[in-house]
Amino acid sequence: MTSDVIAGSTGCNAVSIRNILGTLKKAGIVSIAPGTGGAALQREPKDINLWQIYTVIEKTSADDIFKFHPNSSDVCPVGKNMYSLLSRHCEEIVDAMEKTMSKTSLQQLLDEMNIGVI
């Protein structure tokens, strides 16, 4: 598929799609043919899971996913303790996210949509 086709389907800007595809290409998930050749999976869908895709495109540290106010008041009993209170829980959430997303392959999603291969 070309970036223009994907952009039209997703409602996203074609330049953003090209940037994402370039990132996925560097990770060995897709191949890109120059010009209007488009992009294709470089590996079998069963060998690609959601966590692999997510980690290529998004940051995965709890600090990047969960944004805390950077200027919390040192005199506020809630604000000054918020990060230390929640950081451990946020790490657990990211771990659970990784475990769950790693269990779901691209092939599983294709099967659920009754598409088979893209």
Describe the overall structure:
This protein is mostly helical and 118 residues long. It has two domains: 1-42, no CATH class; 44-118, no CATH class. 52% of the residues lie in helices and 7% in strands. The chain has six helices and two strands. The chain has helices spanning 3-10, 14-26, 50-57, 62-65, 82-102, 106-112; strands at residues 30-33, 38-41. It has a two-stranded antiparallel sheet with strand order 1-2. A hairpin with a 4-residue loop joins strand 1 and strand 2 (38-41). Helix 1 packs across helix 2 (14-26). The chain is elongated, with a radius of gyration of 19 Å. The model has no long low-confidence stretch (mean pLDDT 89). This is Rrf2 family transcriptional regulator, group III. GO terms for molecular function: DNA-binding transcription factor activity. Pfam families: Rrf2.
